Amino acid sequence: MYAIIFANSYKVKNMKIIFSKANLFKLIFFIILAIPFVAGYFGEFNFYSSLYLLIAAGTGPFAYNYFRKKSDTLLMADQKKFQDTLHYAAKDILTLHDMDSLQSTIVKIIFETAKSEFVAIFIQDRKNPVFNFEAGLGDIPFTEDHTLRKNSEIINVINENERPFSPDSGNHLFSVQNKFHSVRLIIPVKFNNKLLGFILLGSKQNNSAYTRHDIRAFDIFAAQAGLAIKNCMTLSENKKFQERIFQTEKSSLLGGMAEGIAHTIKNRLQYFSVAASVLQLEAENIVSSHKDLLEKYPDIEETINNILETHEGMLRNIKRTDEIIHSVIRYARIGYDESSFSEFSLKELISIASNMVKLRHDVYDIALIIKVQESDFIFGNTSQILESLYNLLDNSYEAIEEKKRYYKNKGIDLTFDPVIIVKLRETQNSYIIEAYDNGIGIQQENKNKIFAPYFTTKSSYKTKSKPGIGMFVMGRIIEEIHNGKIWFESEYLAGTTFYLELPRKRKSLTA
């Protein structure tokens, strides 16, 4: 009977502790009650046996409590050590400011102290309404990309619980979920009653159950973990905010400098344009006024013709440089404001980006084909999409040049028509920009590194000052700022196509 009462009060099935408690109760019962009764029976309940019986009955509860506490200390020594370790660790995690390190540390602490078969932690995604599996140890029943939607029944049940709970305590929802079949304890991690994540534990390695003392320790640890996770999220948001401020200030400064320099160059171009026009007028006057002289002296006529040809060349270059300077001024005026989202012409941005590529590589033209319908307006941050388009066109141009150098070094006489094609197509919910080039392509071993910071496949000397930043930044612009997608298809020595998918209208954009 005592074993049943004890099991019900602790709500566990730790039979070792239950039977140890029961045996202790029987021993104390025998010593305090049974022996005096036996002594009294054989002593015919005389004065001494009755006095012993009275003393034993009075001191029995105190003796039992004393021995019970001593047995608790012995039986629960390992659990007390675990609980103390968890309490101390709960304070230490508050010093961690990196989310990845924090998640791994939380999992490691629980795995090593609780001695569970596995520990897994899920954290709420800050951009999408899902909880992602972030870290785990042991025989984990979840894959790396496992997610649970925020409005799912399982998340609703977890959110309703304030304290750690067993998934098989009256709720059949978890038993029908294959992934949760081996979960024995769920620890909600909250901050200000908002669910930030949860920790899943498997069975203990010694097959013992989680006691109410374990649950109390996990409850305290979860509160500290919630505070630590919230701190990491806040620090991360503050860091991004500071980066945006710095980027905005830097871009404003550079934009102002670029506009000032561009205007200065534009003024010089006007002088050269006027000088070229004067030169043309003087040459034409000589031709019309001194025809006899030119017929008599052919060398002078040839010189005049050279001057006129030079005038034509100067005008072409002045016009080309003016177009590029105009693009620089427009780029500088666009600015870099992440909070500024609007509709804009894709063709116009492609034109600006292509002129910037021409300027960077000092070429008159690039083999660019734009396949965009009449309605070319898309939604996004103008400056960031311009930066992304510039990176795409610049990479495409260099991929084509790299292909030329590759075959030249191999001694192969390759004749191919370089081409860069930019397309725009629309779906019900998004715009998809495709940028294709028939350049060198991307080797298989490099495909998973393309969006990594400081990684580059370029060999051009022009990339050495800032290697591997463009694609990393572009990935953040499309995925983090615009809530879009970016991916690519590539075959080495054949070509590459990049895809930029942007939502039609702004929704849940990150700060």
Describe the structure.
With 511 residues, the chain is α+β, with helices and mostly antiparallel strands. It folds into three domains: 2-75, no CATH class; 80-236, GAF domain (Beta-Lactamase), CATH 3.30.450.40; 342-511, Histidine kinase-like ATPase, C-terminal domain (Heat Shock Protein 90), CATH 3.30.565. It is 55% helix and 15% strand. The protein has helices at 2-10, 15-42, 47-75, 77-92, 99-114, 153-160, 212-289, 291-296, 298-334, 346-361, 382-409, 470-481; strands at residues 118-124, 130-138, 147-149, 185-191, 194-201, 342-345, 368-371, 377-380, 420-426, 430-437, 485-491, 495-503. The strands form three sheets. It has a five-stranded antiparallel β-sheet with strand order 3-2-1-5-4. Strands 7-9-10-12-11 form a five-stranded mixed β-sheet, covered by helices on one side. Strands 6-8 form a two-stranded antiparallel sheet. Helix 2 runs antiparallel to helix 3 (47-75). The longest helix has 78 residues, at 212-289. The model is unreliable at 1-13, 460-467 and 506-511 (pLDDT under 50).
